[in-house]
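Sample log: DoxX family protein.
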Amino acid sequence: MNVLFLIGRIVFGGFFIWNGIHHFADMGQLTAYSRSKGIPAPGLAVAGTGILMLLGGLSILLGYQPVLGGWLLIIFLVPTAFKMHNFWAEKDPMVRMNQLHHFWKNIALSGGALLITFISSWPWSLQ
């Protein structure tokens, strides 16, 4: 079971590490998209959310302060779902469907992050 838990940590944490890196690698495009969604200080928001994803993902992957890491991801995921993926405001059916999927992806991932905050034993971790 410990091996499966470690694999889950690698996959879940790695997802956020990869996307956090993507935030910095594609800062210009993501800043422009954030600006189009009305995000104040969009460049700072992209950098800040990139940091939340990197720290949260690393925390879970390494098992170091995983409760804090889970909360960092929740702090990123829930507001992002509502502000960036507000499918209800889209007129185009294709865009609306795309945003709907992203919205529920973020909500589901936040549920997984919330579950992580309640795990008390982290085998093969840095804690």
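Observation: The chain has one domain: 2-116.
Observation: Residues 2-116 form one domain.
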